[in-house]
Amino acid sequence: MAWVTDGLAQIGAGVLSLLAGLGARALFAFQATWRLLTPPFYPRIFINQVAEFFYFSLPVVGLTALFTGMVLALQSHTGFERFNAEAAVPQVVALSIARELGPVLAGLMVSGRMGAAMAAELGAMRVTEQIDALTTLRVDPMRYLVTPRILAATMSLPLLVLVADVIGILGGYAVAVGQLGFDGPLFISNVMRFLTGGDLFSGLIKAAVFGYLIAVMGCFHGFAARAGAEGVGRATTAAVVSGAIAILASNFLLTALLFEIA
Amino acid sequence: MSAALQISDLRVVLGGRDILNQVTFSSQPGETIALLGGSGTGKSVTLKAILGLLPATAGSVQIDGVDVLSGNAARASAARARIGMLFQGGALFDSLSVWENISFRLLHAEGLSRAESRKRALEMLDAVGLDRQLADRHPADLSGGQQKRAGLARALAAEPEVLFFDEPTTGLDPLSAGRIDTLMAETVDRTGATAVMITHDLASVRRVCQRVAFLWEGEIGWEGPVSALDNSGFEPLDAFLRGRD
Fold first, then answer.
1. Mean pLDDT value across residues B5-32
2. How does pLDDT run across A32-89, given as a tens digit for each residue?
3. 8 Å CB contact between A187 and A90
4. Hey, which residues 54-83 in chain B have their CB within 8 Å of chain A?
5. Which of A35, B84, B206, B216 could form a disulfide with A147 if both were Cys (CB 3.0 to 4.6 A apart)?
6. Are residues B94 and A130, on separate chains, in Cβ contact within 8 Å?
């Protein structure tokens, strides 16, 4: 019987540890978000972070969207021609990119790029006592370092996804017209006819949530980094992994929620 | 202006382990006390608990009678504002220029304009013997000794009355260490500040400090003037000074 109780104890400890981890992240997110409501604000840091999130992430997200749109056109054509439904390729490309692939893939790419960068930067600041120094200089580290990053990420990712949507659809267009023999104006008119504001909006809502989660995970793990290069490395890995999981899990919840609303 | 520092029965428990048990010592205006002790005896923990960077389980830290750990929040915050800190590695902000580092508190917590803050930062560069041309460089462009000086300038920029120096000469060559020691001693003399220095550098202790508190098994095992250091009669301190058990 001992092995049963030991096993249950281990499962219980694992569940408690998971809940404690979730609670710590939720508390961290709440503390950082709450500070959005009261001054002082740090617009210079916010603007720098918007540049990092939006401008410098544009190439990697743009390329991801471009190739995803191209592959999507090829794959959907391959599948649909079995049912003589090739004409649906433009709609499928546009809807898939706008509602799902744009925000999710952009989120994952930005999580890899910016979530890691935030965790590494804040982790290095933690281990070199720069975060402690902020406190001794009478500046709240959470307000100075975390809140502007969360706001910048939440506002930048929807803009990034909007650009990614356009590039992704253009990628599908290029393959459809250049390789699959589609008529260009017809492709565009089908996209415009089927793609609604609601489709775009649901993708942008997702992107805002993903941006928020990426910043929370990046900053949380950076703040929690243990001493040494290994500690910063672990924090960076944890930020990327937990950011990706948070994006995928919240994507399901948001899709279900937005589906209900629609 | 100057302030007296009184640490009483400070206790810190981390991970269920008593790191500090009953740490008690004090320092008066114009005086620098060295907190000595072997590695892992809790010197840095003591400093972090005093600064509020680690939670103290019990005890008090008073600056001119105001408890900064558990007293009235507004009074405690005002008392904390009188503290300046030089970190072991300088802890300069990588993304900011040297002058922005030095005037960081003036810019972000005291509300000075950028022009006023820069002027003050340049004065502080003069005070610590750094060339004004370094003002627009970044910390990565400075040598270890220059980073320590810039860190000292940052600690002093808001004219603190209580100063903490964490291993200020660690990693420096003897010449640079001597310069930092002179700067610290001159600063305390000139401002009348109360200072606490954590260090392993006995030469630095003899140059800068008037008194020594030796941390042993979570408490202050011995306290006395620097002149009595070699005749303390406290075996762990003697072993520490000899460099062997």
1. 93
2. 999 999 999 999 999 999 999 999 999 999 999 999 999 999 999 999 999 889 899 9
3. yes
4. 80-81, 83
5. A35
6. yes
Q: Does domain B1-82+161-245 match CATH 3.40.50.300?
A: yes
For residue A23, give how far its alpha carbon lies from the nearest alpha carbon of chain B (Å): 19
Q: Which of A40, A42, A133 sits opposite B87 (nearest CB)?
A: A133
pLDDT value, residue B40:
86
Q: What does the alpha-carbon distance between residue A51 and residue A37 come to, in Å, rounded to a whole number?
A: 23
Tell me the C-alpha distance between A32 and A258, whole Å: 26
Q: What is the pLDDT of residues A97-119, one digit of tens each?
A: 999 999 999 999 999 999 999 99
CB contacts under 8 A, A 118-137 vs B, are 124-125, 128-130, 132-133, 135-137
Q: Give Dmax (Cα) for chain B.
A: 56
Residue linked to tokens 């981390």: B14
| Boundaries of every domain in chain A | 42-261
Cβ burial of B11 (10 Å; 0-12, 13-18, 19+) is middle
Residues 6+ apart with CB under 8 A from A200: A98, A162, A165
CA distance A86 to A73: 10
Name chain A contacts of B80, Cβ cutoff 8 Å: 138
Cβ atoms A108, A160 nearer than 8 A: no
Residues of B in contact with A135 (CB under 8 A): 51-53
Q: Is the dihedral of CA A123, A128, A129, A133 positive or negative?
A: negative
Per the document, the length of chain A is 262
Evaluate the CA torsion angle A139, A140, A145, A149 in order and state its sign. negative
Cβ within 8 Å of residue A213, ≥6 positions away: A243, A246, A247, A250
Q: Which of B91, B94, B154 is nearest residue A129 as measured by Cβ atoms?
A: B91
Rounded distance between C-alpha atoms, residue A241 and residue B222, angstroms: 50
Contact state of B154 with A128 under an 8 Å Cβ cutoff? no
Separation between Cα atoms, residue A244 and residue A240, nearest integer Å: 6
